């Protein structure tokens, strides 16, 4: 087993490890849910994910958070528009 302060070749390296913030972990969960709901590839959602280092943690980039929220709001508005265009079909 290779010690934590070495790479796979056994060379010493500085320990610059970072952990994910709770917000970043939550966003990974949201990305997974979005992929399931939309039928899209989770990899595409992860490629769009942007993180920044803050206090030894990887946290969500504020620009990414804003863009993600705008995209979700747009998608929800499109769903509402489609529902309105099709009429409210209640089968009760």
Radius of gyration: 20 Å
Helix content: 40-55%
Instruction: Based on Cα principal axes, name the global outline.
Output: elongated
Give the neighbour order of strands across the main sheet: 1-3-2
Q: Average the pLDDT over all residues and give the rounded result.
A: 85
What sequence of helices (H) and strands (E) makes up the elements? EHHEEH
**Could you name the ranges where pLDDT drops below 50 across 5 or more consecutive residues?**
none
The total beta strand count reads 3
Distance between the termini: 63 Å
In brief, what are we looking at here?
The protein has helices spanning 22-38, 42-48, 62-86; strands at residues 19-20, 51-54, 57-60.
Overview features:
11% strand, 3 helices, 3 strands, three-stranded mixed sheet, mainly alpha
């Amino acid at each position: 087993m290779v010690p934590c302060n070495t790479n796979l070749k056994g060379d010493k390296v500085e320990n610059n490890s970072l952990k994910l913030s709770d917000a970043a972990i939550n966003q990974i969960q949201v990305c997974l849910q979005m992929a399931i709901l939309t039928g899209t590839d989770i990899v595409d959602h992860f490629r769009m994910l942007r993180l920044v280092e803050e206090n030894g943690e990887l946290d969500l980039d504020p620009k990414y958070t804003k863009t993600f929220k705008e995209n979700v709001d747009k998608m929800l508005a499109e769903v509402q528009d489609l529902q309105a265009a099709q009429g409210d079909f209640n089968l009760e």
